[in-house]
Amino acid sequence: MKPNDIYDLAIIGGGINGTGIARDAAGRGLKVLLAESDDLASATSSASTKLIHGGLRYLEYFEFRLVSEALAEREVLLSIAPHIVWPLEFVLPHERHLRPAWMIRAGLFLYDHLGARAFGLGAGRSSLPKSRSVSLAADGYGAGLKPEFGRGFVYFDCWVDDARLVVLNARSAAQHGATILTRTRCTGARREKGVWVVALGGEGGVRSISARALVNAAGPWVKSLLDHELKLASPGKVRLVKGSHIVVPRIHDKRHAYILQNPDRRIVFLIPYERDFTLVGTTDVPVPESEGRPEISTAEIAYLCEAASRYTGRTVTPAAVLWSYSGVRPLYDDGSADPSAVTRDYHLMLDTGGAADAQAGAPLLSVFGGKITTYRRLAEHALDELSRWFPHTRPWTHAEPLPGGDFGDADFDGLLTDYKRRYPKLLIQWLARLLRRHGVLAAAILAAAKTDADLGENFGGGLYEAELRYLIANEWARDAADVLWRRTKCGLHMTEAQRSRVAQFMHDLGEAA
Ligand SMILES: Cc1cc2nc3c(=O)[nH]c(=O)nc-3n(C[C@H](O)[C@H](O)[C@H](O)COP(=O)(O)OP(=O)(O)OC[C@H]3O[C@@H](n4cnc5c(N)ncnc54)[C@H](O)[C@@H]3O)c2cc1C
């Protein structure tokens, strides 16, 4: 990057929305720069429930646009990222006094059909099975629950590795020519002679770049970036709502997740996580302006344990919690009193600086709200909003697989069988985990490996030196947390001593570089 470089688009924020917009714009031929103050996905985009879902509960708030768009996106993301997105079956134990069966059936019927209708795919085109009612005891769908839950409903949504989705979008953006700068903070930006002059602070000090358009994708900091760094008055308001998850030893050995109704009418998920665990979440806690990294409170742990224990055969206690994480939802403020009811839909706010001729003012587009699920459509809408400045481009991201996702005619199981044949000395469980992280790009990590001894130092938890070096070289990994908790979840399977060894190894590599 040279000091006087002029970009078409400068994007502030390396969460899912910033990287999604960077990928889309770069693939349309724009010269793009993305600046992220910390690591990619270091904020909300690695702290989600990790569902690509229409959001069954949003039907109760009549969010039909959001649900339709999100349901259609399940199919798109399954096809462009089959390594990190996969179908997940949900079981909803029925409790008559909370919601009558007819209401749930009607909701699920709508859920089954909305996506296909809204996007003209034609009924029956969803690759996911339709919902149905089941006997929990007879069909094995009540595993881990109290025996009193006799009947329920099952339906499908999808699971996603949220942090990897962000990194792969960044990687694809870079492959299309974007400049991705992590550990680089936007410290100010102003309009000057029809372009944005953006000040970026990083390890090398402060430098300026120019851009024809600016995107504010700072997530929970969207408003504070406008107020403080950009010094612009904006009518858009953001509601910051913290959500936390706990990880406990797995409560059953089946593959399905539970969606549980709480007496406060909120829902809580129990999701199989990283083979050995169950993920329980989430909470809705309004918080003031986002400063440091959010953390789970004792009250949230108690709430989640209680919500799970109303259903589980074995009580889930705070002492069983092995790990937790929290994120802040940057929701668009629609004036709702109840934090669970605030819209999960996104709003894009275009500011052209009040110039009489809209084309004369360098545009600023701010992203309020959104879901991981709808990031790709959000990016397309963002490029639509900017089309006056960047005309004659076309949407393309629905058709090109994300890095590692080009499976050809194979499905995941077929790919795994092929890798098992090619690398017979490697443990199949480990190969499966590697393929889930990297898809067909796992080949680059395995290139030299005939046995696991070829993979360099074994750090434990399923992490080898060969993958660690790959993450540093190709995925902007800089410190141990980037690797252990975002590019992989190996940290969850390690001891403290093993995690420290990874930190030391990365520190030593940095010193040597
Ligand atoms: C508990 C919880 C559960 C959720 N579950 C789901 C789910 O299951 N499915 C789903 O679809 N969605 C879910 N979501 C919503 C989803 O996670 C968010 O909508 C999405 O991650 C927001 O992404 P973002 O890019 O806008 O923000 P972020 O991921 O927060 O990214 C913003 C980035 O901007 C950077 N930044 C800020 N200021 C600056 C600056 N001055 N300079 C440079 N960089 C800066 C930050 O460091 C940050 O990395 C959930 C959210 C939460 C909190």
Give the termini distance in whole angstroms.
20 Å
How many E-type strands?
20
SS-based structural class?
Answer: alpha+beta
Helix fraction bin: 25-40%
- Which overall shape is indicated by the principal axes computed on the Cα atoms? globular
Strand proportion: 15-25%
Largest sheet: 10 strands, mixed
Which spans have pLDDT < 50 for at least 5 consecutive residues? 120-124
Rounded mean pLDDT score: 91
Radius of gyration: 23 Å
What is the count of DSSP helices, taking H or I runs of 4+ residues? 13
**Ligand species:** flavin-adenine dinucleotide
In terms of topology, how is this protein built?
Blueprint: E1 6-12, H1 16-27, E2 32-35, E3 51-52, H2 64-80, E4 85-93, H3 101-118, E5 132-135, E6 151-160, H4 162-175, E7 179-181, E8 185-192, E9 195-202, E10 205-216, H5 222-229, E11 238-249, E12 257-261, E13 267-273, E14 277-281, E15 285-286, H6 298-309, E16 323-332, E17 347-351, E18 364-368, H7 375-385, H8 412-422, H9 428-438, H10 442-446, E19 458-460, E20 463-464, H11 465-474, H12 480-487, H13 496-512
Helix pairs in contact: 1-4, 1-7, 2-3, 8-9
Flavin-adenine dinucleotide binds at residues 12-18, 35-38, 42-45, 47-51, 185-186, 217-221, 225, 229, 243, 282, 327-330, 367, 370-373.
